[in-house]
């Protein structure tokens, strides 16, 4: 076993978990981490001008490529409190980011010492997990748990707070044998998918609502394939925008408040069945829940059990990772199509397409100053 500082072990864990970039601002209480990063030279650091900016940079990095986890780093006190907005943004949109903060030495933490804020308590409501590591030997395993939690179930942010003396204490750690913990993601059963497709097949005017969980699961191609096989239009949420190209014949537009197209709202009101995948029925999408739900049935597929029934009770709920569910949706839909069991949706698709062609907002407005839409 190798003897090393706890913070050097933490950097080894970051490497083994696939981290190649970090965003942050150095400061006295976190400088041991910066010395460890410099010594290893394996993780590229991007210097932010403000620690809140670093947290948003980390979120953007996670969003850029499936599998990324953005890391942001700050010193004690105001660095952590500055990150709260970034943590809340990441939590609301189910984006995994790791925030690492420095902390006053353990002996000074409860004496109103300089910048010794209880960041763990402040961050807890806007993270999947927030912890102040008080034992040096627990540092590498706190990071291991952080990556396990960020990747398992509904993704989300984590904050690890490291007292200065914990960072520099020596521990035994063998980086060569370190392995990430297995990721837990629930998966739908075939029986559940068959029931959902049977309910959809009974409807006259069904829609698929595609949420951000599909993007998080890197399952957009599967969503498009499923929609094409089953012949059903897709309404993406704002977080799900991009799961299906805007110019695709089955892209029916967005609906709700602020994020809507007129034709998307009209199509939702004309529908009689909605299959939601990886979405959470946020009120910017639904608007009035009574209007949104009246006269239509709902199936809700989401990785997080507590999301199902949170806004309204669906007619059928499935707890599953979006990719695992869509793989089965495609498989079953292809089998049903080959057997001639799927309804022909061409008239409904054409009706949705007609709205998309004719219900566009006016852009050539002659008011002055000239609007950018007219330009």
Report on the architecture of this protein.
The protein contains 16 helices and 13 strands. The model has no long low-confidence stretch (mean pLDDT 95).
Features:
375 residues; alpha/beta
Summarize the structure.
The protein is built from 16 helices and 13 strands. It is α/β, with parallel strands linked by helices. Helix 2 links the parallel strand 2 and strand 3.
- Principal-axes geometry comes out as elongated
- Outline the biggest β-sheet: 6 strands, parallel
Helix/strand-derived class?
Answer: alpha/beta
Order of helices and strands: EHEHEHEHHEHEHEHEHEHHEHEHHEEHH
Alpha-carbon distance between the termini?
Answer: 67 Å
Bin the helical content. 25-40%
List the helices and strands and how they pair.
Layout: E1 2-5, H1 6-16, E2 21-24, H2 31-40, E3 44-47, H3 51-64, E4 70-74, H4 78-82, H5 84-92, E5 97-103, H6 119-123, E6 129-132, H7 139-151, E7 158-163, H8 164-168, E8 170-173, H9 190-202, E9 206-210, H10 212-216, H11 220-230, E10 234-236, H12 262-270, E11 273-277, H13 283-286, H14 289-293, E12 297-302, E13 316-319, H15 322-338, H16 346-358
Parallel strand pairs: 2-3, 2-4, 4-5, 5-7, 6-7, 9-10, 9-11, 11-12, 12-13
Antiparallel strand pairs: 1-8
Helix pairs in contact: 1-2, 1-7, 3-5, 9-15, 11-15, 12-16
